[in-house]
Each structure stands twice: as C-alpha cells, then as structure tokens.
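> forwarded from #structure-qc
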C-alpha cells in the first residue's frame, strides 16, 4: 500500500472513533434527560394524590384541609425509576425524587416537588 492510502485509513479510523465517542455521549445525555422527565412525572402523580387527600373530608379518609397524616402510597415509595420521600407539614408537602440514573460520579438525578393546597411545582436539583 502507498503512504497516502495508509494515511487515509488512519484518518478514517480516527474520524469513526470520534463519531462513536460523540454518539455515546449524546445517548447518555438523552438517557439522563429522559429519566429526569420520568422522575418529575412520578413526583407529579404523587402530588396529585396528596392534593386529593388534602381536599377530601376527614370522615371520607382525607385530610380535611390538612396534609397531616398523609404518606406516599407504598407502591410509589420506590419504583424502577427512583425512590421518593416526603416532608409533610399541615399546609405543604415537599416530595424529593431520587432517580436510578447516575449523572456524574455518585450523584443521581434529584427532583423536588413542592405541593400546596391548590398547586405544585417541581425544581430540578441534579
């Protein structure tokens, strides 16, 4: 083989290697973003359950205008997508969702959803 052909082969191998590295990084980034969206969605589902509890009268098993006594449903405490914890006060709940996808090192995806009597909002922590 000529010198020019060997140079072209080496150049092609380098370009393919760079393309593969970029593809892997894009796939990982997309997987993290997708898992974060799933954790936010599950926190939102838990928040709507909490608001229903707040609005339901106590004689019907609700909180009667209070979040006191509310707990995350057992089947939603831990899912394949993450684990969920709640800090409950009479007028507000803070739900923290920790995803199973690791972002960097040991840092997992983390989302916090604050629930009040009529609405909720989510904050991405990691």
């Amino acid at each position: 083989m000529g010198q020019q052909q060997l140079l072209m082969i080496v150049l092609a191998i380098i370009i393919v290697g760079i393309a593969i590295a970029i593809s892997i990084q894009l796939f990982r980034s997309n997987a993290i973003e997708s898992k974060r969206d799933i954790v936010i969605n599950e926190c939102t589902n838990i928040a709507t359950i909490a608001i229903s509890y707040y609005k339901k009268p106590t004689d019907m098993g609700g909180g009667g205008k209070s979040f006191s006594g509310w707990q995350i449903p057992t089947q939603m405490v831990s899912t394949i997508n993450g684990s969920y914890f709640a800090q409950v006060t009479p007028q507000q709940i803070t739900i923290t969702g920790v995803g199973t996808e690791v972002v960097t090192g040991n840092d997992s995806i983390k989302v916090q959803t604050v629930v009040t009597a009529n609405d909720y909002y989510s904050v991405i922590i990691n």
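QC bot note: Residues 3-124 form one domain. The first strand starts at residue 82 and ends at 89.
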